[in-house]
Specification:
Blueprint (H helix, E strand, L loop, with lengths): L2 E5 L5 H15 L6 H13 L4 E8 L2 E13 L4 E11 L8 H15 L4 E3 L7 H9 L15
Parallel strand pairs: 4-5
Antiparallel strand pairs: 1-2, 2-3, 3-4
Helix pairs in contact: 1-2
């Protein structure tokens, strides 16, 4: 299976925003607000100190995307990352592409000297949780907390 990961550029924003909206509709209950979402995506695409975005391609067709954001963690003693979003079109799920995306992400993080990767997964998405666990992620005995400012 020919799967590749291509670093996103500003010219890729239209397809990224379509995928981001599809992901939001699949994984969120709030309405999608394209303005702030596009600003956030543009920031990560344009500023590698913030993170990286890749289009996922199968036989040269865009089928999804993956977003890695960066931060420093004292607990990890170094640069850490969050897999902020991973999205595959529905017709491309269950084909092993998610597993390949996770392996690509882990290898990329090693190249960037990132010590840990964290991610979040909704409790009602057992397929994604199973993928992440098979990729070496483990649940922690901590609660995820968030304050919106």
């Amino acid at each position: 299976m020919s799967v590749s990961f291509e670093r996103a550029e500003t010219s890729d924003l239209p397809i990224l925003m379509k995928f981001m909206q599809d992901f939001h509709e699949f994984d969120h209950t709030t309405p999608f607000d394209i303005g702030p979402a596009q600003t956030a995506m543009e920031t990560v695409v344009a500023n590698e100190s913030v993170g990286r975005v890749w289009l996922i391609k199968h036989n040269e067709a865009n089928i999804g995307y993956i977003v890695l954001t960066l931060h420093y963690r004292l607990e990890s003693r170094g640069l850490s990352a969050s897999m902020d979003e991973l999205f595959l079109r529905e017709e491309n799920r269950g084909m092993g592409i998610g597993r390949q995306a996770m392996e690509f992400l882990k290898n990329t993080c090693r190249e960037l000297d990132i010590t840990t990767i964290q991610l979040e997964v909704k409790n009602d998405n057992p397929e994604a949780a199973a993928l992440y666990e098979k990729s070496g992620f483990e649940k922690l005995d901590r609660a995820f907390m968030l304050a919106t400012l």
